[in-house]
């Protein structure tokens, strides 16, 4: 029965409704109000930073109306929510995204124009929220975007790092890292919630609660407060606004006044420093596990605060804890949040007094786990002694989880000692290690990979024994996707306008299946010309960006060949630059007339290397060394340019992705779980040059084999090649040998610097099979060139590709997760 509205309800409604003021006068008023009242500016002292801040705060006011409404609505109807737990959210900028979502872009452009600013310049004032490394963190951002747009009740949970992904400077060709102080200016897109704070314990000792089987009291003096900051996630064309709740360590209470009064100033703030460091920095490793103690504490702070918050919200419904899985689904984004499993067990056993079996049943029905990698160096394992010291209660719970699990395995497969050893959550090494992927698998009701090939591989490798014990149905595939809002509509307005015209309206932005309509226009000459022109305009925009960031002038008429992603040996940027060296050699050998007939090409690299990843950093140096020589060679001119765009970020990607003719996704087969930039490039009319790996395979299936250039060995061949190369030195083909020779002759500066890269192939077992794939890679490049020369065919490929890419919308992915794993339903917000 509806309660009679009180005055508070009515007042609340005044600020929480879906109707948003759109008229220029109201918008202008609110921008001016923020300029003067929030930022103390006068008309004479407005600069573009404050024009941005004031308009961002004004947009946020509008967003908040709907945000309040959304949360209140979900509480009121008792909606089941999904919680996407991720230590990374690579959001990028929010302002433009919010303007588009609220369909207020033109209105704000008008108001800003009136006060003398261009919207594009104002947008450029925003700092990226770079709370992630690469694909995994950006996927999380796309998924919360889809949840919001599709009206699913769901939140992201993460950490609010004071320093996001480092800024990459290139000095003398080398990567140099600088801190990303993204919170130096006010951040309109977050809300501190000092009232939402939870204590998180570390270290200490346990006291068994008498009379109970599994109940302990955890006594510790080291208790930190995790405080919530909320980031709104605008849903495009819907009232629904999502939320990412990020935790930060609150330190004020840790100031030691006694020490201060005694003159011990460092001691007075010591506790604050120890606490704050937990949420200070994002670990800059992509696909590598560093195993640092601080990282473990960071993970636990995140998991504990999140689980306490989820349980507290659930308890406000008044329902019994056994119904938690009916109200909450928790998705673990990789193993980083796996401590959520023992933490929920701790809360249910020790705080709530449940028995083990009931607590375990609730836990496993609530959690599901996504695996994102098979690289051995990325597998999280924590030494048992470290875990035992920092989290004694959790170590105990993990032992019990393992014990009950192994008892079950033993019953199913008596006398198989080997199986027990291989499947145990505790690895019997010295010291013993907790295998986090195994813990995540045992504690979840579903495990998924992120592309079809990857989901198959994990069933045959890391989880092979679990498939035997727990059955195949537990293991499913959820191919990744990306958000069409940011990765088409926002970053590529020219192409988006054409799609809107063909579809008849903008509904494709939330329903990508509608882009199929492009196929009908593939033979329309006028349309094809405009399609080509849109790509050329994007290439000019990138050429300007390259000039501004590197000082290198490139011709937009050349073929733009892009590899933009984290620098990692398995992604093989080294193979790419070696092929560039070979191309340079060939061009130098040609007579001028012959060279003039060559297809001009701009090879663009972008990406960061983890600070401690020496080989990856040498690859960056090699790319820059090659660029310097090639770009200065007058004989070569525009026929070949090589560019390393510094400080790759979401915003940089928004410039780069729409401008590619081809993009390279050339990981050794079986190593790239999915990839998501491959999807972004094709969704923007670029063609892939890639290996038969990750989501490349499914992209090829969707767009058709005419629309993709595959090369290289297949995943099932990799083991044999590696085995062979362990015992035999590779024999580089003439092209690869030529590239080695040029480096060793010193063409690109001191040859010694680069010798270890060559040695990794010739003497290090060539783990990533560059020598194996190089010949077919060079052939694939030739095929690309040949195809690009036939502009008509190329435009056909480009249009058909976009038309057939609907599968790779994150909306499709989220719908599959919602229906097959989370069991949640879309609920459009109604007032
Ligand atoms: O390396 C994978 C990448 O292939 C995938 O697209 C992305 C999102 O699923 O996750 C990456 N994995 C990691 O960053 C670490 O597991």
TrEMBL record:
It comes from the Eukaryota. The modification N6-(pyridoxal phosphate)lysine is found at residue 680. Allosteric enzyme that catalyzes the rate-limiting step in glycogen catabolism, the phosphorolytic cleavage of glycogen to produce glucose-1-phosphate, and plays a central role in maintaining cellular and organismal glucose homeostasis. One of its GO terms (molecular function) is glycogen phosphorylase activity. This is Alpha-1,4 glucan phosphorylase. The keyword Transferase applies. It comes from Coemansia javaensis. It catalyses: [(1->4)-alpha-D-glucosyl](n) + phosphate = [(1->4)-alpha-D-glucosyl](n-1) + alpha-D-glucose 1-phosphate. Its cofactor is pyridoxal 5'-phosphate. GO terms for biological process: glycogen catabolic process. The keyword Transmembrane helix does not apply. SUPFAM superfamilies: UDP-Glycosyltransferase/glycogen phosphorylase (SSF53756). Gene3D superfamilies: Glycogen Phosphorylase B. Belongs to the glycogen phosphorylase family. InterPro entries: Glycg_phsphrylas, Glyco_trans_35, Pyridoxal_P_attach_site. Keywords: Allosteric enzyme, Carbohydrate metabolism, Glycosyltransferase, Pyridoxal phosphate, Transferase. It holds the Pfam family Phosphorylase.
């Amino acid at each position: 029965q509806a309660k009679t509205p009180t005055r508070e309800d009515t007042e609340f409604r005044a600020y929480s409704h879906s109707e948003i003021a759109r008229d220029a006068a109201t918008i202008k008023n609110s921008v001016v109000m923020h300029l003067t009242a929030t930022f103390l500016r006068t008309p004479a002292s407005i600069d573009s930073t404050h024009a941005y801040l004031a308009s961002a705060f004004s947009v946020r006011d509008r967003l908040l109306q709907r945000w309040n409404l959304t949360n209140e609505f979900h509480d009121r109807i008792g909606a089941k929510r999904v919680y996407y737990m991720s230590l990374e959210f690579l959001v990028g900028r929010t302002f433009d995204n919010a303007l588009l979502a609220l369909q207020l872009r033109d209105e704000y452009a008008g108001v800003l124009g009136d006060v003398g600013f261009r919207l594009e310049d104002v947008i450029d004032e925003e700092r990226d929220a770079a709370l992630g490394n690469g694909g995994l963190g950006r996927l999380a951002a796309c998924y919360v975007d889809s949840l919001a747009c599709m009206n699913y009740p769901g939140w992201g949970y993460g950490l609010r790092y004071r320093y996001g992904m480092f800024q990459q400077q290139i000095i003398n060709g080398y990567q140099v890292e600088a801190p990303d102080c993204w919170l130096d200016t006010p951040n309109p897109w977050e809300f501190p919630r000092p009232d939402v704070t939870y204590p998180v314990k570390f270290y200490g000792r346990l006291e068994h609660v008498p009379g109970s089987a599994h109940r302990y009291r955890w006594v510790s003096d080291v208790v930190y407060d995790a405080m919530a900051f909320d980031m709104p996630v605008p849903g495009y064309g819907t009232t629904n606004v999502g939320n990412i709740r990020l935790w930060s360590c609150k330190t004020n209470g840790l100031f030691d006044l006694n020490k201060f009064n005694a003159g011990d100033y460092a001691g007075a703030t010591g506790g604050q420093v120890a606490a704050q460091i937990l949420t200070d920095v994002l670990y800059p490793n992509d696909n590598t596990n560093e195993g640092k103690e601080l990282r473990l504490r960071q993970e636990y702070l995140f998991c504990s605060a999140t689980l306490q918050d989820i349980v507290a919200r659930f308890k406000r419904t008044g329902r019994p804890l056994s119904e938690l899985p009916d109200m909450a689904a928790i998705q673990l984004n990789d193993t980083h949040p796996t401590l959520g499993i023992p933490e929920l067990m701790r809360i249910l056993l020790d705080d709530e007094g449940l028995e083990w079996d009931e607590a375990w049943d609730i836990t496993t029905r609530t959690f599901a786990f996504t695996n994102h990698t098979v690289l051995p160096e990325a597998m999280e394992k924590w030494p048992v002694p470290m875990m035992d010291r920092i989290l004694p209660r959790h170590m105990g719970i993990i032992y019990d989880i393992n014990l009950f699990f192994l008892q079950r395995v033993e019953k199913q497969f008596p006398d198989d000692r080997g199986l027990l050893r291989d499947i145990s959550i505790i690895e019997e090494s010295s010291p013993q290690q907790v295998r986090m992927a195994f813990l995540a698998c045992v504690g979840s009701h579903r495990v998924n990979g992120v592309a079809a090939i990857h989901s198959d591989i994990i069933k045959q490798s890391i989880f092979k024994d679990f498939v035997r014990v727990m059955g195949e149905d537990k293991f499913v595939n959820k191919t990744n996707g990306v958000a069409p809002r940011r990765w088409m509509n926002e970053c590529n307005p020219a192409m988006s306008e054409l799609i809107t015209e063909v579809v008849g309206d903008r509904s494709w932005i939330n329903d990508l299946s509608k882009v199929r309509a492009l196929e009908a226009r593939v033979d329309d000459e006028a349309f094809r010309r405009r399609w080509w022109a849109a790509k050329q305009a994007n290439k000019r925009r990138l050429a300007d960006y390259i000039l501004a960031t590197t000082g290198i002038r490139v011709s937009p008429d050349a073929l733009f060949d892009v590899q933009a992603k984290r620098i990692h040996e398995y992604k093989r940027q080294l193979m790419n630059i070696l092929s560039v060296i070979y191309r340079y050699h060939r061009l130098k050998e040609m007579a001028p007339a012959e060279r003039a007939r060559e297809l001009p090409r701009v090879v663009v690299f972008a990406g960061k290397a983890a600070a401690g990843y020496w080989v990856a950093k040498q690859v960056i140096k090699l790319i820059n060394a090659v660029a310097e020589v090639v770009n200065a060679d007058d004989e070569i001119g525009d026929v070949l340019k090589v560019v390393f765009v510094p400080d790759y970020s979401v915003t940089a990607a928004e410039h780069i992705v729409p401008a590619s003719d081809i993009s390279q996704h050339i990981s050794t087969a079986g190593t790239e779980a999915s990839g998501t930039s491959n999807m972004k490039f094709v969704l923007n009319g670029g063609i892939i040059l890639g290996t038969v790996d990750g989501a490349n395979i499914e992209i090829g299936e969707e767009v058709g084999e005419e629309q993709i250039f595959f090369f290289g060995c297949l995943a099932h061949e990799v083991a044999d090649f590696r085995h062979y190369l362990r015992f035999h030195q590779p024999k580089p083909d003439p092209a690869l040998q030529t590239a080695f020779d040029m480096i060793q002759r010193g063409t690109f500066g001191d040859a010694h610097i680069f010798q270890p890269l060559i040695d990794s192939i010739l003497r290090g077992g060539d783990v990533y099979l560059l020598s194996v794939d190089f010949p077919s890679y060079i052939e694939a490049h030739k095929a690309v060139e040949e195809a690009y020369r036939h502009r008509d065919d190329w435009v056909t490929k480009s249009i058909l590709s976009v038309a057939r890419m609907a599968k790779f919308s994150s909306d499709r992915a989220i719908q599959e997760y919602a229906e097959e794993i989370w069991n949640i339903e879309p609920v459009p917000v109604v007032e």
